[in-house]
């Protein structure tokens, strides 16, 4: 079993920057795809950014050129660097890890609140 622990959330002013981290721990595993998702009040959870084991990345159009996903496979950790933050970025952010074995099991972080406000 794998546990994902997120850190780095908080309150930030519009135009500010913040970096989220998500570290995986537990029994033997190998992560294929890392993802960051967010869910704003009254909205469905949406994909923000994704990184494959080959470090191919994908971003939602709303965050492209502002957010950067990166991963450190040796540390089993993924990061989300957020810049030029806007009030509409306010949401609970969740990391997601998809295992590379045949089960392709997904694991989720506990979620961390990002609030962008003056």
Short account of what is shown:
With 118 residues, this protein is mostly beta strands. Helix content is 0%, strand content 55%.
- Low-pLDDT runs of 5+ residues are none
Whole-number mean pLDDT: 95
- Give the termini distance in whole angstroms: 40 Å
Form type: globular
How much of the sequence lies in strands comes to over 45%
- Output the structural class: mainly beta
Number of helical stretches of at least 4 residues? 0
Oligomeric composition of the shown chains: single chain
How large is the radius of gyration? Answer: 14 Å
Strand count, sense and barrel status of the largest sheet are: 7 strands, mixed
SSE series: EEEEEEEEEEE
Describe the SSE topology.
Blueprint: E1 2-7, E2 10-12, E3 18-26, E4 31-39, E5 46-51, E6 57-59, E7 67-72, E8 77-82, E9 91-99, E10 106-108, E11 112-116
């Amino acid at each position: 079993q794998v546990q994902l622990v997120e850190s780095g959330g908080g309150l930030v002013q519009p135009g500010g920057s913040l970096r989220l981290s998500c570290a995986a721990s537990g029994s033997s595993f190998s992560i294929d795809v890392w993802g960051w998702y967010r869910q704003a009040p009254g909205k469905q959870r949406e994909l923000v950014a994704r990184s494959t084991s080959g470090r191919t990345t994908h971003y939602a159009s709303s965050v492209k050129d502002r957010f950067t996903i990166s991963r450190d496979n040796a540390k089993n950790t993924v990061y989300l660097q957020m810049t030029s933050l806007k009030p509409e970025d306010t949401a609970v952010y969740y990391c997601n890890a998809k295992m590379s074995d045949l089960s392709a099991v997904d694991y989720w972080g506990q979620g961390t609140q990002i609030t962008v406000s003056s």
